Structures are given as C-alpha cells and as structure tokens.
Amino acid sequence: MVGAGKTNAKTPRVFAIVNQKGGVGKTTTAINLATALAAAEKRVLLIDLDPQGNASTGLGISQKQRVITTYEVLMGMDEIGGALVSTSVPGLQLVPASVELAGAEVELVETARREYRLKDAIERLKVVYDYVLVDCPPSLGLLTLNGMVAANAVLVPLQCEFYALEGLSHLVRTIDRVKKSLNPSLDLQGVVLTMFDKRNNLCDLVASDVRGYFGEKVYNTTIPRNVRISEAPSHGKPVLLYDWRCAGSQAYIHLASEVLYREQDYAH
C-alpha cells in the first residue's frame, strides 16, 4: 500500500477528468495518465466516479475486489480509506466504482453538502498521495459536480472529430459556475486531443480550432488512434503495461511530462 499509516502531511493535487460526451477517451486518459505519473515516481490515487466502472475494469480490478466503492464513500456509509485497492502498477491505487453509483445522482439530492461529499472524503484520507485523478461520468450531473468541487483543476480529453467543440462551451460555462459558487480555486489544467489521426485532414482542422479557442491550455501532446490503446482494457491493463513501446504509450508518457511541467508552478 502506498504510504500506508502516514498522516496526510501534504495535500494532493486533485484533477477531475471531465467531458460530458462519451467515447472521447476520458477513462483511457484517466488510467494511462495515472499510470504514467506513477511511473514518474509520483504517488497516485485514481477515483472511479463513473457507474460504468470502466476505470476499475481497465486496471484489472474484478467485481469481487470492489467491496467498498465510491458509492459507499459518497453516501457516507464507509470511509474512502477502506475503499483503497492496490493495482498492478507500483505507486497507483484505485477507489473502484459500482453500478449503484447510478442511483447516487438521485439519492444525493436531499443530502447535506451534496456537492462536497467527495471533497470531504479526500480531505479525510490518511494516505499520502501526490496526485488524485477523478474519472468522472460522461455527464454534467451531481457526480461530475462532486469531482469538480473536489478538484484543483479540470483536465478535458477531446476527441478529434467534427462535433468536438459542440457542447464544449457548455462544459466551460459549468467550470466557471463551479469556480464562482462552489470551488474558487478550480482551474483548467488543460485540454488533451485524443484519437488523433494525422492522415485525416479533419483532425488537423479540429486541432487548429481547439487551439484557437483554448490557446496554450491545449497540450502539445496528442493521443493517436492506436489499436494497442483499444486492446489494453480487455486485458485489464493500462496500455503502458500492455505495450510500453507503442505510440499510444509514448504519447501518455509525454502527456504526463507536460502535466508535471505545468504543475511546477504549484508548491505541494
């Protein structure tokens, strides 16, 4: 277990990985960025906040291992420390998800501090982490809101497709609203372009549009369309463990380097 038994002497940096559209590489980015940060000798916790539980499955965590999940943590039934599961990646732990999370959206409505449940849970952690990544569901509901309220920054994976910018302005407005009313310290860490195919002119046009809109907030690293990235989850492994030499793995290593470079401005 990472740093077990230590008091939380320093507060981790928390990233909410958010896009209200599904199929944009959000969970893939969460798993592989977490793995790449752990490979850089950072202590990392990945919180699976999506009822589909794909981040848990993609790290090879079986249903039997998901004894205490983010559902129990958000509903106040258990502490987050009891939900920690070790993964096959040294330095990376997981809080798994369960399908019951789908009901949490409704159940939390009448609950006190409903937007702060995850933030409160993370603050009670007794284990020391450098980074906590929250894999949010593909919606802008109460679960994603919990992720953004708990976070220092939002990281947005964006698929290089025609409709990429559609809905993005809504996400940006949501981030602004959360910043104004619930979490004044929230920032946009960056936008990562996923499923990039350099043979496709449309990808270049989309990338140009996104860079025009977000400027330097867009990472230089793009995540390519890569069959090894697609295959890795079915083996319960991050692509960096499945095939570290492939283009997808190398891209996530570069992305982690960019994230860490941007983080140099923040004192831990």
Question: What can you tell me about this protein's structure?
Answer:
The structure is a single chain. By secondary structure, the protein is an alpha/beta fold. Helices cover 38% and strands 17% of the residues. It has eleven helices and eight strands. An eight-stranded mixed β-sheet has the order 3-4-2-5-1-6-7-8, sandwiched between helices. β7 (187-196), α8 and β8 form a beta-alpha-beta unit. α1 crosses α11 (247-263) and α5 runs parallel beside α6. The two termini are 21 Å apart. Residues 1-8 have low confidence and may be disordered.
- Spatial extent as radius of gyration: 17 Å
Which strand order do you get reading across the main beta sheet? 3-4-2-5-1-6-7-8
Number of helices: 11
Largest sheet data? 8 strands, mixed
Q: How far is it from the N-terminal to the C-terminal residue, by CA?
A: 21 Å
Give the H and E element order: EHEHHEEHHEHEHEHEHHH
Q: How confident overall, as mean pLDDT?
A: 91
Bin the helical content.
Answer: 25-40%
What shape does the CA trace take?
Answer: globular
Low-confidence segments, ≥5 residues, pLDDT <50?
1-8
Number of strand segments: 8
Helix/sheet category:
alpha/beta
Strand content: 15-25%
